[in-house]
Records
---
Amino acid sequence: MDTVIGVRPREAESAGVESPPLAVPPEWRARLERRALAPLAGTGWRYYAWIGALLAVLGWGIFAYTRQLDEGLIVTGMRDRISWGLYIASFVFFIGISHAGTLLSAILRVTRARWQLSVTRMAEFITVVALMVGALFPFIDMGRPDRILNILEYGRWQSPLMWDILAITTYLTGSTLYLYLPLVPDFALARDRLGPTAPRWKRAFFRAAAVGWNGSPAQRRALERAMTVMMLVIIPVAVSVHTVVSWIFAMTLRVAFNTSIFGAFFVAGAIYSGIAAIVLLMAVLRKLLRLEEYITRTQFLYLGYMMAAFSLIMTYFNVSEYAVHGYKMEAGVPFHFEQLMVGPFAALFWFYIFGGLGAPAIIMLVRRTRTIAGVVCAAVFVLLAMWIERYLIVVAGLRVPLEPYAPRDYFPSWVELSILAGAFALFALLISVFAKLFPVISIWEVVEHRGPEPGARAENEGSRRGRPGVAGRPAR
Amino acid sequence: MAKGLGRRSLLRFLGAGVAATSAAGALAGRGAEPVAASTHPAVARGGRLRRWAMVIDLRRCDGCQSVGKPPQCTRACIEGHFAPQPMEWIEVYEGHLPGGGTQFIPTPCQQCQNAPCVNVCPVAATFATPEGVVLIDQQRCIGCRICMEACPYDRRFFNWGQAPQPPEALFMEYDAEHQSPAIKGTVMKCDFCPDMARSGRLPYCAQGCPNNAIYYGDLEEDLATNGEEVVRFARFIATSSAYRLKEDLGTEPRVFYIPGHGEAAGRSPFKRGRLPTQWPWQKRVRQGAVPWTR
């Protein structure tokens, strides 16, 4: 088996020419199709209960927002001297985790890696959903949401906010397209497999979504080319998105934001939290949908290694920032360092440093913790820490006094916390709906480019080998 | 769709996307049209535009310790503009002197000529007039508050709720030069009173100062006055070592300060504290309007 996997002529892909499909055992293939299409075929009461719970939380968030619409932003904890808070921090966080999809399906695709194919679909879910949820926050944060069209009518490109709007819209459009393209053959598969007993709307949906896909060589060529184009387009767009998100801070005259590495720092942090988000989602879906055969230790460990690498990159950025600021101690910096390191933000800050940057690297370094559970644990740490980091950037950064006045304290109000809870519920809701309508595994890509997971059997036998599936290496 | 996604249809799709983006860009270009402010630029002799500017003589400012009242510039501004509580558009900060002791620094909007707030506004709701005054069109402002992050002087104020203003403010006709009635969810700040200057009056703060510490005038005509004496602007700031706040940021403010700590008013630099500002109409605000804190 191992000799077959990943043997593809190098020229085949770069030229966009379809290579002969891998020889895979038909019963394995049939099982994969059954498993991946199972959520589309039937729905249990647990799913509806879960959706109901999410809708309840979302409803509460919407109720909180109506209070804010009614009374104004006075219902939040924000005031003049800390005039951005939880909303903008969450905006940065959600846009950050959207980089999961880009990393897995574009950056890794460029390197011709194959091991990630079984989780690219989930990562693209995260990208699209996180962008949709994240993009809501600036509008929730607006004092005059009724004047939203002023942005179109009077928008001026000199403003960093307009760069954000342009970049995020482009990114959302591009990543929706990039989610859809590889879905087409899977929609066709669902269309062909559903059978006449399926509800009419479902059959109509899959027929429409499959846009007449029949797997002919011409269609395959077109799809491969379109995916290659999108792959190359989406990477610079993703980098630009998080760069301009950082620029709504870096373009202001605030000492805590006054650093030219902010763009790169935000991009690295975005990918870092994106990896953690995909690890968490694939752990959950793997358990719920019983995908253990396709998402194995290999995927977790490789993503864990990438997370460890990014924790080092993040550490480097932090050292750069704090060393350069701390050595010179310009006006405002002593106050900023004090509030972060020993003042009101100390607990959050040190959790971010040790729990968010140190722990994941150590978890991946120690052989005993280098397991699926270990990687998931590290991902939880990373997600928490990166949310905290965004909060600290916004709130602590704005807390540095600009004039001789006593610093103001900020604590999010119940409205802000409810809306944040509603946003997380919306995130989970959209992922759940997507997982119900779209196959969570890119079936055709796994079948044609990856084949059975080499580590799948070994893991069940409890193998502790440090090197996950040698054959899972990128195809050469 | 029998042919599926061909290269041509993909290119066509991308082309449509580009066209849509350019259309949005063309729409956005409309930001150049004038905003709703009744600005008829003031003109000096010879047809040259006035350039309003201010000099604050800190030697004369004792934070109104000698009169035993809250700062009278702030009070006059609040009464003239109906600035809602807690907005002190001209706020008297107490800063430390390098050699010990304190000084009072009345701080209006600095009217930067390279204004960070104007640069970042996404809808051109904050803008510079030909006279060089930075104003806000509250009827256009979307309340994103990026200008408040951008301002390095803490001189912008947000209407977090229904602003507590007296009834007479609510009957005014809105204008960006006096900003009343206040609009919930928008940003306000010192507007430098160009409407007063055009009609030959000093701004409220300069009128209210009991020690005549605030000079206001026109850089173009090179004249300024505190209501008591008239000075040549350029020579006045040159001979009194005037400086501007955070000059190294390159914001080019139009507000100049003459260093001091109230010595002309007889204040000792070690006499600390000023009385807190009060809003005279607390009992007359409309129902549901509550003050907040900064």
---
Amino acid sequence: MKKFDKERLLLAVAGPVIALVVAVALTSVVLIASGKNPFEPYSIMFEQATFSDIQVLIINQASLYYIAALAVAIGFRMNLFNIGVDGQYQLAAMMTAVVGAHASLPAVLQVPLLLLTAVLTGAFWSGIAGVLKVTRGVSEVVATIMLNAIATSLIAYFWLPNVFGVKVGNNNTTGEMHESGWIPGFDMGDAGEIYGLVVLAALLGIGYWVVLNRTRFGFDLRASGASETAAAASGVNPKRMVLTAMLISGGLAGLAGLPILLGDSHTYSLNFPTGIGFLGIGIALLGRNNPTGIAFAALLWAWLDKASPELDFHGYDKEIAVIMQGLIVIAVVVSYEAVREWGLRRQQRRVGAELAAGHVLGATSDNSIQKEVAGR
Amino acid sequence: MTTVTDLNQPSLQPTAPKGRRLTLPVLLLVIAGGLALTSIVRIITGADGITNVSQMSTALELAVPIGLAGLGGLWAERAGVVNIGLEGMMILGTWFGAWAGYQWGPWNGILIGIIGGCVGGLLHAIVTVTFNVNHIVSGVAINILALGATRYLAPLAFEGVQGGSAKQSPPVESIGNFTVPGLSDALVDLNDKGWFFISDLAGLLGGLVTNVSWLTLIAIALIPATWWILWRTAFGLRLRSCGENPVAAESLGVNVYKYKYLAVIISGGLAGLGGVFLSIVANPFYLEGQTSGRGYIGLAAMIFGNWMPGGLALGAGLFGYTDSLNLRGGAENVHALLLLGAILLAIGAVWLLVRKRYVPGVITLAVGVLMFTWYSLTDEVPNQVVSATPYVITLLVLSLSAQRLRMPKADGMPYRRGQGK
């Protein structure tokens, strides 16, 4: 039993480690091919991570990535592919900014109102895809891609001055939000401020773990992901499961833009970060849909983002970080799959050997043989 | 609903879809019907722009990259590999096309751009076929990687060159347009007359013969060529069998891996060609973010067209046309199209009611009435509504007909050699 668990741990760690090593090696190859020093960029970026102002930036950025990746991950856990996180969080952030600019309640009410707006907008947008999938059988991948594009148009429409927009110079904004909706950050002195909603991100991570691993709903959800037919046979309503998962995913996605919106920008403008939903997919994959793993992945991504601009001052191109992100994702998915297959093959071989030796399965040592080796 | 359940019954008959297939005559009829309706709307509203020759040629130019991406998706999915990475492969096509194009001429640029797309396809094939990774995951990763790679390469290759910058390549020579002499002018004249149907047809045809790039012609030719290769040759039959039932194909001696690899590489090449079209024909340079999601739209056009080349072309044309309205139509033309939409919805409602599907029929009618009210109460439509139109239409089409669409049976499924044993 003990030995088996050790192997399981090894398999679980092997995936990301192999992936990172391969990605770093390939990035170095790219650097060599473009006639640059293949090692110095890493040391520059590591050095950046020791500066406290960069650390604050990394933590802030990671909080956005973390929530977005959780939203993607909850879909992944039941084989639902919510590519629409990108549109959901942008639309939700915009609606929150609009509500925040027009409603002016005391902070005790204003902040919950804003959070609720974000969750409901995100859930509404993903719910469309969920309803279409459940009632009409439309693939959620295509539906959410379309909804992303529609969200972009919708945002452009809301930005019109006669709708919700306020022009500030050349920038489209939604007007400044009322101060009661601002969430104060943690002051770090010269280093800057950590967004207050970083706490929310952490709480969401804990909530995600509790719901998935300690509730019946979470069990049903994971069961649906592992085998839809088996889940249906055990009494799970697959349609309701799909819809619920889609709504939760969208609601989480809705929150992804809030740390920066309520903590820093206080308006939804052209400068608002875009594409976090797509990055969230890569981060969820890297973190293996596990809340702790995702946290590390989000920090890694944020580090690559925030430490790379320094490279420009040393004769490197900061885009190398984007290449690295892409390579990490590819390496990760390939190595996870390879490690999983290798683990399965070992397991099969062992079961085969035990059967050949005349053991009765399960009677002798372990029921752990039936455990899945390296999760997905 | 009834036809769908019938199709799901196992039967010994080859399941020839009854009347639902988009054959060439049906396709032409649909186009003609749409054109006639548009013509009526044009005459009622006086918005002559909606079937103008120049409108149509813009629409064509915008439809080509979408169509090429869609064709790429078609090749891959017919062999059972979902290709969300089309966007990334297009990006590779734009960069490599412009990079080679400004140095060695546009035709070499086209070739290298196609090769760039093929490299993306090869990567997708390695990851999905050899390593059996989830196809969508791999596609997403390729999109991220292609974006990063071109953003890294662009400053290295283009900065410091005359006319280039970190985000834009130096200009590429044009590959030249051609206009059918005489015919084009005649069609333009006819188009200006404003007659019912004939002028609109002239506008459509005029768009096909006025200032058409050679690459556009190649792209258009690729649609029937794809159909012929995939549905009329042994190679195509084997390729499609890998998308329908790879285990059965394997048992008949088809090398499934080989066909999947080929299909995905060709898919990447087509997407790359779509990218080249953007960076050599549509604009004479590479620009960061040039594809702006066209790979995804191509995928939507393919699904819209029920995984068939003809339907795909129709879908791409629809996207291209609404895009062109956005570019040059102005609010008036789009406003006229509201009426068209209302009429189409009314027809749809009648059709549904005749088939005794009352609830959807009434809903469709209500939406149509709403649209007509919108039309009669306003004078113009915000641009943003127009840009969302193709996506909304795709969603509507999917939600109305998703059960009728039939994707290749093993599309997106993992397959291992020797699985059937």
